[in-house]
């Protein structure tokens, strides 16, 4: 693929659609020639009955909406593909069971982005390049691991095994070394490890000394470590779980007693796009219900992705047109619900769809 030719430079999607054929039809392939490698993707797009405005989409996310998290993950994948580094960001930073502020702190330590003497000196702050406790070079590894004060804190910490902090040459190795330790039972912690809090308070203690000339002893540091870790874990246990919230949401979905229940399903061969067929089947079901003057409808489907997309207002390249049709058609009902049902509860529609696979797509309608 290269830059567009002069003739194709101003093409829009509508130039690939047939002006004569009904919707859902793409123009035949003479025009496709310069983008032939995308032919399959283009042909899998199901067009809407009504014209849709152009949109910019962020392809790495299923919702097609940009998030900082997805941008960051993508940049990590690209960065990791050019380095042979075995350090797991996931295991050593983002998946550590600890508070969000400490995860952010762990990330900053690896990126050399916390305020320690050596880094402050680089930025022009005077007289801070050396450790006030021992006179050593005050970099991140020193404050968190190799300073004699830090080593005494680690040695007294109620963890096992005690990390080996000799000859560390990178913060990544420091994090990997301390992550092997677990807290001893008398501390009273559950699954949350103690070591992230030790790192955090070693840094706090150093800042206190550097900027306020106040000194915490090793025991004071460890007292704050255990108190804060326990407070955080206790607060976490008091939060309602997502499962409970989900159950509450499900209970909120009340079905009107006079609503018509329909079950739709599609069967497909491996060569076709499953979710697209499910969506076309659902649209046919809704159209059939409208033709039968149904005013309240409950659509049940075993295609979880499709129901999720409709209920969340999400987008998917090949389905955007038909999802728009379904949303527009939905406005014509007094009430309409889209529910996911497991395949076992959708057996009748499933059997009908399979029986009709060779001839056409199918929807089954069952109402009161
Ligand atoms: Zn020191």
UniProtKB/TrEMBL annotation:
The RNase H type-1 domain, residue ranges = 260-355
- Which Pfam family would be a valid example here? zf-RVT
Reverse transcriptase zinc-binding domain: residues covered: 66-154
Instruction: Please give the name of this protein.
Output: Uncharacterized protein LOC109133253
Q: Which organism is it from?
A: Camelina sativa
């Amino acid at each position: 693929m290269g830059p567009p030719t002069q003739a194709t430079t101003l093409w829009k999607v509508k130039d690939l659609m047939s002006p004569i054929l009904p919707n859902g039809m793409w123009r035949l392939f003479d025009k496709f020639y310069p983008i032939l490698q995308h032919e399959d993707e283009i042909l899998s797009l199901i067009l809407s009955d009504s014209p849709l405005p152009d949109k910019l989409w962020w392809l790495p996310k299923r919702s097609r909406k940009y998030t900082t998290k997805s941008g960051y993950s993508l940049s990590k994948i690209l960065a990791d593909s050019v380095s042979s580094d075995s350090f797991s960001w996931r295991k050593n930073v983002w998946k550590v069971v600890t508070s969000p502020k400490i995860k952010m702190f762990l990330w900053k330590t690896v990126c050399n982005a916390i305020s320690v003497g050596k880094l402050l000196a680089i930025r022009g702050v005077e007289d801070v390049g050396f450790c006030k406790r021992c006179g050593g070079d005050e970099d991140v590894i020193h404050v968190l691991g190799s300073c004699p004060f830090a080593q005494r804190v680690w040695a007294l910490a109620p963890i096992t095994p005690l990390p080996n902090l000799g000859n560390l040459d990178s913060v990544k190795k420091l994090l990997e070394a301390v992550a092997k330790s677990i807290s001893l039972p008398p501390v009273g912690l559950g699954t949350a490890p103690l070591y992230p809090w030790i790192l955090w308070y070693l840094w706090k203690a150093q800042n206190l000394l550097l900027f306020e000339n106040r000194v915490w002893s090793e025991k004071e540091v460890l007292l704050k470590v255990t108190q804060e870790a326990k407070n955080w874990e206790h607060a976490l246990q008091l939060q309602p779980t997502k499962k409970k919230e989900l159950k509450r949401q499900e209970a909120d979905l009340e079905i009107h007693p006079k609503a018509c229940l329909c079950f739709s399903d599609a069967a497909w061969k491996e060569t076709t796009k499953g979710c697209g067929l499910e969506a076309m089947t659902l649209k046919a079901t809704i159209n059939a219900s409208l033709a039968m003057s149904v005013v309240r409808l409950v659509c049940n489907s075993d295609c979880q992705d499709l129901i999720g997309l409709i209920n969340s207002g999400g987008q998917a390249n090949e389905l955007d047109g038909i999802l728009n049709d379904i949303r527009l058609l939905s406005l014509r009902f007094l009430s309409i619900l889209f529910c996911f049902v497991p395949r076992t509860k959708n057996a009748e529609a499933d059997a009908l769809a399979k029986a009709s696979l060779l001839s056409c797509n199918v929807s089954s309608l069952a109402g009161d």
